[in-house]
Amino acid sequence: MLISGFSSPKVFAMTTAVTSLSILLVEDQLNIASNIADYLEQKGHVLDFAQQGRQGLELALENHYDVIILDLNLPIMDGLEVCQQLRSKASHHIPILMLTARDSIEDKVSGFSVGTDDYLTKPFSLQELEIRCIALLRRYLLQTSNTLELGPLRIDRKSKQVQRDGQPLELHSMGFRILTVLAEAYPQVVSRSMLSQKLWGDEPTESDALRSHIYQLRCVLDKPFNDAMLKTVHGVGFTLAVTKDETVDAEDEK
């Protein structure tokens, strides 16, 4: 059963900052599809609906959608097959959020291996579903533009120049790479292991290397300004705070 969560001020601010999404919903359970459609349409989003995988694939290839909500267990052609064919046939990348009753690591790996962008396990909050769709579109738009703009922060990936509040920031190459990774993932938290993987791959690094680079980035990005943008989520990783957010604690790297 779908349960819509309580709308906090933080979530409300995020959703109202994004315009209406064009969404393709591929779901064979009509009661679930109806609940999703009613909620998202009330929020101002526009939906197309398909009950079978093949029909969903055809709609996805013929029309433009900001996000596709795709159920895993579909008749005739399941969600994995739809995703795989869409990735091979579509002329551009379309963010896909997979819905599934399966929550095993193996099932999620199977989905990500064929091109799924995100997973949501049933039962889920309708509010969380909307937030994930918005985050997927934002992430896609950020990754396909030379310029990333998050509040006062402006990153030019082509020229490798960064500004905050219009002031140029002199970053070393590693600081630029870390900041770009965090900006592309915003508003999600990037774990320490994921950040290390993106920076160094599988090459072994000194245990304090990441801590040192984070400290140097903070010195340039945050210390000259009143508010810190680079935040540490204790025991998890790092994220960027575009506005003051008391739910995320800052931690100085020493």
List the secondary-structure elements in sequence, H or E: HEHEHEHEHEHEEEEHEHHEE
Beta percentage is: 15-25%
E-strand count: 12
| CATH architecture term of the largest domain | 3-Layer(aba) Sandwich
CATH classification class of the largest domain: Alpha Beta
Explain how this protein is built.
This protein is of the alpha/beta class. It has two domains: 9-143, Response regulator (Rossmann fold, 3-Layer(aba) Sandwich); 147-240, Arc Repressor Mutant, subunit A (Orthogonal Bundle). Helix content is 41%, strand content 19%. It is built from nine helices and twelve strands. The chain has helices at 9-16, 30-42, 53-62, 79-89, 105-113, 126-143, 173-185, 192-200, 209-221; strands spanning 22-26, 46-50, 67-71, 96-100, 118-121, 147-150, 153-156, 161-164, 167-169, 190-191, 230-233, 237-240. The strands form three sheets. The chain has a five-stranded parallel sheet with strand order 2-1-3-4-5, with helices on both faces. A four-stranded antiparallel sheet has the order 6-7-8-9, covered by helices on one side. It has a three-stranded antiparallel sheet with strand order 10-12-11. A hairpin with a 4-residue loop joins strand 7 and strand 8. Helix 3 runs parallel beside helix 4 (79-89) and helix 7 (173-185) crosses helix 9 (209-221). The longest helix is centred in the middle third of the chain and has 18 residues, at 126-143. It is elongated, with a radius of gyration of 20 Å. The termini are far apart. The model is unreliable at 1-17 and 244-254 (pLDDT under 50).
